[in-house]
Amino acid sequence: MTSVLAQQLKAISVGRPDKLKKGKASLLYDPQEAADVDVETIYNLALGGFDELCELDGRFQAFSKTLFGRAGLDVNRDLEGKETNDKFDASIKSFLRLLTGNFLLPCAFRALEYLVRRYKIHEYNAEAFLCAVLPYHSTNEFVRVVQIIQVSKLPMWEFLAGVRETGAAPPRSLLVARCMHYAPFLQHVCSYAQTASRESKACKTTTSFYTVLLIELVAAVPKVTDALVAQILPFVLTGLSKKASVEFQAGSFMIAGQLMSRVVLDEKVLADVLTALTKGVHLSLQGHALQLLLVAARTQRMAEMPKLAGAHIMQWADLPGALTELAGLADLSG
Predict the structure, then answer these.
(1) pLDDT of 25-83, one tens digit each?
(2) CA dist 161 to 115, 151, 242, Å?
(3) How far apart are CA 72 and CA 183, in angstroms?
(4) How far apart are CA 21 and CA 155, in angstroms?
(5) Which of 29, 108, 113, 147 could cross-link 34 (Cys pair, CB 3.0–4.6 Å)?
(6) If you average pLDDT over every residue of the chain, what do you get?
(7) d(Cα 258, Cα 271) in Å, to the nearest integer?
(8) Residue 332: is its pLDDT beyond 80?
(9) How many whole angstroms separate alpha carbon 43 and alpha carbon 49?
């Protein structure tokens, strides 16, 4: 992204991360400069950014009192009890998931600056912070976030230590490799993606990024194991549900298709996937659902279609239209 903010962040990121020891963590300022900016100033700056976010998406209003009320100016998380910090955690994680779609906007960084200073989200909520902005891994903005987090102390994220030191954005291939070789990271990614994508009006950026990441992972692993299928499956099934967005469903179709092309699934797992596929499919994707069923017929040990899947198909509002669409898709593919 080419913007004034991105250019400023790139300039800041060339500084050594160990300078944070002599200053304050900041997304907007050099650590030494940040130490000279009082929290009241940062709060007023954040309010302007927060108001802009609320204009873009009314759902941000829910955080006007919990995170951005004046009472927060007196918060010291190091002195708060577990119950209070747990409430802050829940609110901050929800805010970060909602913010993902607007992360690159200057108003988002002004709001985040306050959360870093007052709520220490780079310490108390580092993993949620990183997951929320991971879709922007190739940007200077992402690098700036990494550089204020002690990733070397986080086993899940220590592979980003080089990013913190050099200021070079990580390629997606590095993320795929991390998923491939460190199961806890893959589990964490799948869990986060499932939670974020399940929410009302889920961010397209989030679902698209994590869908592509998992597709590339399935394509890259030497062998698709039962353990890998078990980790990815909950995300896929969530995407196949009726409540999922059209974009999320389409992405789940692609992951399911990639899995079927690489491995013969357990009979029950296959039945669960096909049943979910046919039950919750959006009208505009029914032709694609039939195409995925054909993929299953070609690649899986499936003597017959699961009964529930067949029953769901017969209840589709426009089965003839779906069959016509399938014929068109077959013409395009071959």
Answers:
(1) 999 999 999 999 999 999 999 999 999 999 999 999 999 999 999 988 999 999 999 99
(2) 23, 6, 40
(3) 37
(4) 21
(5) 29
(6) 89
(7) 16
(8) no
(9) 10
Dihedral angle at the C-alpha atoms of 291, 286, 276, 132, nearest 10 degrees?
100
Token digits for 159? 């592979």
Tokens standing for residue 99: 């913010």
Residue type, 3: S
Q: Hey, what amino acid is at 285?
A: L
Report residue 231 as tokens: 């980790």
How many helices and strands (H and E) does the chain possess? Answer: 18, 0
User: What is the token pair recorded at 104?
Assistant: 């690159």
Residue 185 token pair: 């990271």
User: Three-state SS for 286?
Assistant: helix
CA torsion, ordered 281, 283, 285, 287, to nearest 10 deg: 110
Q: Are 26 and 117 in contact (CB under 8 A)?
A: yes
